[in-house]
């Protein structure tokens, strides 16, 4: 293949595979060039009339010049207005305007008779603009049109007047300059387009990473707050939930002047302003502590959530203040319930190992004592049946012995129940959490364990939690049995109510009964092991229930402010149906 063919194929490849400016940039540059055309045509027209008023016959404009410039001013104004109003086919409009520029300049060059420096510069601008604004093939056509008209008008001028080799040489040199300027402009435009694409790709990547970062921050369990210049510039959903602050996005109407991006930015600003206002009102101590940390300094402390912020759900938060490079501060809020759950897991594991090691040693003598007491009771019963002639004193002594043996046997059974309750901690040291839909699971549980009892279930939402099924059953069995027992002490008709609803990101399960409640003096001892006000109880039910709750990152509380006896189970919610729907069931 010869070099001419290689050059031709290379030119063809570059022309047909060139990159062009994106439409927004094309419209911006097109408006600039259309304005430039109108200014140049108007300026040329003014200079024409100024020269005509001087009265110098040698510099008087010809009729062709006057007609051409008048026509050029009118078309420039029309093209400018058309390009500004019509947003379709912008390259076609620009191509028509550039071709018109070449024709007008060629007519003006013909009227001068020889190549003019000013017209040459205007030709250069047209050629350069064509390669920047149009496709390579269109720009090449505009350039070839300019070369043909420049050379042709010199031949036409030579035929009409006289042949000048100097003017012809200047025309050829001008044509070569067109090609050089066109090639250089095309190369620069391609580089600009590539830089524009690189910048656009970088902007998209930054936007994608920003969206990913926002999603990661939003889905974080820990609360994240960023403070810059004494104002909050970022706060995720967990921060609202941990501090029990409302997360309501204000509605902003979208108008012609207010685009979607502007609306989103306005909503974010309003949300952050609302969050800062609530934080300053309900958690002024925390907010002031964050603002008081000096620039470049870090701090960590534990924050007790005040009662006004629903302290029954979140007790304590660990607050970490980390300085950033731009003198802003990163505040991380961590719910201490996870640490309490981990500590409870270790406690359960240690207690499980202890109970497993001593259970055998305790149960062996306990079984012997229980069996001996049973044999003694049977022996006394047989003697009392066989020896009918016993004196009253002997009969009374045997009856007293029988009561003592029964007391020993009942106490051995109570000790055995205590051992079994403690062994429940070692049977399942690590909570095996499962996803539970309480609206479906709770009725089935009550049907299996409390058939025949008056249990009133009210579910106001459809929450989904993650909990160990066996441990949740043990917790509810203990609480419901306690409610039925103490309710029967106060009223002849014993019943228990169960309310399930959501608060922030938690599911609340209230176990209610109409008993006498817990006295103020016993509140501090309520969840201690072996504490009980019932002579038949072991004192481990509430302690084990609270241990199981902490192992599942939940909390068990007694609510003395409630009008009824209320034990509240607080479990982190996975998902819930926002529609209010009340489910009431009565198991009797």
TrEMBL record:
Q: Which UniProt keywords apply?
A: ATP-binding, Membrane, Nucleotide-binding, Phosphoprotein, Transmembrane, Transmembrane helix
**GO MF annotation terms:** ATP binding
Q: Where is the Histidine kinase domain?
A: 357-575
Enzyme class, first EC level, given as a word: transferase
Organism, per UniProt? Psychrobacter proteolyticus
Q: Which PROSITE patterns match?
A: HIS_KIN (PS50109)
- Return the EC number: 2.7.13.3
Q: Which PANTHER family would you find in this protein's record?
A: SENSOR HISTIDINE KINASE, SENSOR PROTEIN KINASE PILS
Q: Which CDD domains match?
A: HisKA
Q: Which reactions are catalysed by this chain?
A: ATP + protein L-histidine = ADP + protein N-phospho-L-histidine
Name under which the protein is recorded: histidine kinase
**Which stretches are transmembrane?**
31-49, 69-86, 93-111, 139-159, 171-188
């Amino acid at each position: 293949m010869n070099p001419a063919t290689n050059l031709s194929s290379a030119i063809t490849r570059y022309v047909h595979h060139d990159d062009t400016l994106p439409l927004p940039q094309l419209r911006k540059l097109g408006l600039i060039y259309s304005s430039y055309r109108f200014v140049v045509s108007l300026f040329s027209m003014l200079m024409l009339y100024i020269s005509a008023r001087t009265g110098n016959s040698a510099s008087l404009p010809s009729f062709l010049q006057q007609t051409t410039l008048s026509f050029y001013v009118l078309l420039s104004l029309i093209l400018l207005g058309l390009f500004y109003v019509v947003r379709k086919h912008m390259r076609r409009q620009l191509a028509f305007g550039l071709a018109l520029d070449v024709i007008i300049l060629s007519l003006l060059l013909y009227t001068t008779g020889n190549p003019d420096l000013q017209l040459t510069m205007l030709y250069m601008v047209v050629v350069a603009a064509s390669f920047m604004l149009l496709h390579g093939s269109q720009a090449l056509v505009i350039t070839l049109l300019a070369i043909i008209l420049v050379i042709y008008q010199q031949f036409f001028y030579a035929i009409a007047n006289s042949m000048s080799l100097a003017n012809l040489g200047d025309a050829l040199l001008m044509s070569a300059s067109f090609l050089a300027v066109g090639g250089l402009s095309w190369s620069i435009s391609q580089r600009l387009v590539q830089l524009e694409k690189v910048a656009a790709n970088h902007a998209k990547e930054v936007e994608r990473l920003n969206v990913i970062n926002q999603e990661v921050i939003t889905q974080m369990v820990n609360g994240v707050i960023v403070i810059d210049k004494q104002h909050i510039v970022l706060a995720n959903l967990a921060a609202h939930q941990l501090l029990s602050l409302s997360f309501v996005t204000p509605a902003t109407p979208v108008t012609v002047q207010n685009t979607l991006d502007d609306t989103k930015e306005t909503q974010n600003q309003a949300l952050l302003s609302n969050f800062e206002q609530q934080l300053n009102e309900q958690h002024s101590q925390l907010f002031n502590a964050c603002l008081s940390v000096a620039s470049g300094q870090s701090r960590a402390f534990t924050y007790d959530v005040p009662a006004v912020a629903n302290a029954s759900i979140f007790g304590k938060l660990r607050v970490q203040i980390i300085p950033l490079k731009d003198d802003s501060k990163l505040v991380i809020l961590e719910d201490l319930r996870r640490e309490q759950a981990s500590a409870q897991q270790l406690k359960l594991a240690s207690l499980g190992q202890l109970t497993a090691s001593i259970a055998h040693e305790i149960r062996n003598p306990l079984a012997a004592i229980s069996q001996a007491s049973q044999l003694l009771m049977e022996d006394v019963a047989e003697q009392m049946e066989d020896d009918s002639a016993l004196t009253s004193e002997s009969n009374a002594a045997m009856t007293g012995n029988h009561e003592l043996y029964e007391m020993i046997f009942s106490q051995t059974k109570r000790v055995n129940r205590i051992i079994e309750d403690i062994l429940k901690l070692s049977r399942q040291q690590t909570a095996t959490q499962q996803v539970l839909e309480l609206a479906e699971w709770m009725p089935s549980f009550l049907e299996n364990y409390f058939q025949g009892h008056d249990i009133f279930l009210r579910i106001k939402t459809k929450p989904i939690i993650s909990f160990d099924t066996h441990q949740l059953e043990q917790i509810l069995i203990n609480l419901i049995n306690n409610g039925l027992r103490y309710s029967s002490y106060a009223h002849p008709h014993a019943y228990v109510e169960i309310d399930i609803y959501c608060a922030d990101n938690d599911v609340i399960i209230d176990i209610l009964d109409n008993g006498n409640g817990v006295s103020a003096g016993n509140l501090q001892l309520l969840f201690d092991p072996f504490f009980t006000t019932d002579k038949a109880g072991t004192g481990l039910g509430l302690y084990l229930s609270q241990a199981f709750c902490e192992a599942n990152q939940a909390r068990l509380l007694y609510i003395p402010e409630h009008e009824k006896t209320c034990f509240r189970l607080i479990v982190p919610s996975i998902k819930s149906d926002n529609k209010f729907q009340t489910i009431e069931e009565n198991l009797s």
